[in-house]
Amino acid sequence: MSCPIVRLSAERVGRVTVLSWRKYKLSMPWARGRYGYPTGAPFNVAVDVLGDLGEYAVAEHLGVEVKPPLWTEPRYDGDLANGDEVRTTPYPRGHLLINPSDADDCRFWLVIADPPDFMIVGWIYGRDGKRDSYRRTPRSGAYMVPQSALCKEIY
Questions:
Q1: What is the domain partition of the chain in residue ranges?
Q2: What integer pLDDT is reported at residue 152 of this predicted model?
Q3: Where are the alpha helices (DSSP H) in the chain?
Q4: Could you report the average pLDDT of every consecutive run of 10 residues in the chain (155 residues)?
Q5: What pLDDT does residue 107 have?
Q6: Taking the CA of residue 67 as centre, how many other CA atoms within 13 Å lie in the half-sphere pointing to its CB?
Q7: Which residues 6+ apart lie within 8 Å of 13 measured at CB?
Q8: Do the Cβ atoms of 48 and 69 come closer than 8 Å?
Q9: 111: nearest Cα among 92, 134, 135, 136
Q10: What is the per-residue pLDDT for 143?
Q11: Residue pair 69/47 in contact by the 8 Å Cβ criterion
Q12: Chain centroid to CA 39: how far?
């Protein structure tokens, strides 16, 4: 089964990029020094933009809304209106990152970004992605779920 590819319009990419930049600027006071973010703005903004574009791609494919960002504090109740989380990477062989604190009953989607195209690779429930075999290193808290472990049934 091939993975669906969502092509976002130039207008959508532009609008999401502007919103991501605003979100980045407004959220930095609480994020500074947390989550292992480097201090260089270009890296953070690029990560935010790709992540937000990935959210819009999955939302468009599923026919759901993207939740509006809470720009002053982190959001823990899903990226999409249905409660799903979206993780985006520019790497074609990239893995889905799940943190130990992520919800067990939430679906996590992996998107490969090559703007304006976004390939929806698949999803997994948080509890299923938190296997010891998926840990980045034995001491690391993050889980790196391979693409082969993701459910390819995309609604």
A1: 5-149
A2: 87
A3: 10-31, 41-62, 126-129
A4: 89 88 66 50 71 92 79 60 90 94 93 96 96 81 94 79
A5: 95
A6: 16
A7: 53, 115, 116
A8: no
A9: 92
A10: 94
A11: no
A12: 20
- Bridge partners (DSSP) listed for residue 96: 145
Angle at 99 between CA 108 and CA 74, to 5 degrees: 85
Q: In this predicted structure, what is the pLDDT of residue 29? A: 55
Tokens of 24: 């980045």
pTM equals 0.82
**β-strands 85-89, 96-98 pairing:** unpaired
Q: What is the dihedral of CA 7, 9, 13, 18, to 10 degrees?
A: -160
> CB 109: neighbour CB atoms within 10 A?
27
* Token pair 């520019």: residue: 90
The pLDDT of residue 66: 84
Please give the pLDDT value at position 26. 65
Q: Bin 15: left if φ > 0, else alpha if -120 < ψ < 50, else beta.
A: alpha
